[in-house]
Amino acid sequence: MLKTLSFTRQVVNTGIRLIHHTFKQTTLKNEISARKEITYEILNDVYNKDDTVLSDEKPKSVLESCDEDLSYVAPYLKPTFNFAAYVNKSETLQELLKLGVNLHKLEKKGEIPQYILGLEFERDIKNHVLFLHSLGLKVYEIGDFITINPNIFKESLDDLRTRINYLKYKKFNDEMILRIVCINPLWLQLRTPEIDERLGFFQKQFSLTGSEVRLLSVKKPKLITYSLKHIKINIFVIKEEMGFNEDEVKAILLDSPGIFMKSKYK
Hints:
This protein is mainly alpha-helical. The chain has helices at residues 2-49, 51-54, 84-87, 91-98, 103-106, 112-117, 121-134, 139-148, 157-169, 174-183, 192-205, 210-219, 221-224, 228-241, 246-255.
């Protein structure tokens, strides 16, 4: 009797487990089926939005002719500046032209065009022109000066007068100063201590007298404001590599100062 009841319970428990297992399998299949349907719907939605996926058109070859308007395609060019568009409206540019300033060269000087257009002739330029004229520069020489050194207008007149007075103190006469300023407009950009230091360098390095310093400055004004590093390299080349002594190097400097501005290989 007990064995019969035990067997019956085992049969019942087994049946329950089978039913439960079958239910889980059915539920799992339904979930998988539902997920597939959702996935198909998503994919259909994506394909329907992407015309290129559904399109049967083959991609064009780069060798095929193109009927599309490509006139808007152009290489990138850096912006350029041209004074011509402003000359008729700018009194400053008109006055600079009268002085003989080369506006075409000023256009190539970085931020200078915008700077020049921001100046007023009467307020920012006129007094500097009169100062240069007082040094003895003629009208066309003033134009050349401004073309080379438009930054002169950034310097105060008091500073410029101080630099001229320094040269006079060092016994440069008016003719010497005029030649220096005409040949090397950038000279006036240097502060008095800088000029003094440079003149002292040449005097000490080459054992020059005061009159020889003035002679060198007038003969080659650009040398005084040239790169001292470059000059020192050429001094080394002439003395150490070529074998010239101190007196010979000094003679070369006073006779042909431009040599010290050339490339060491030349």
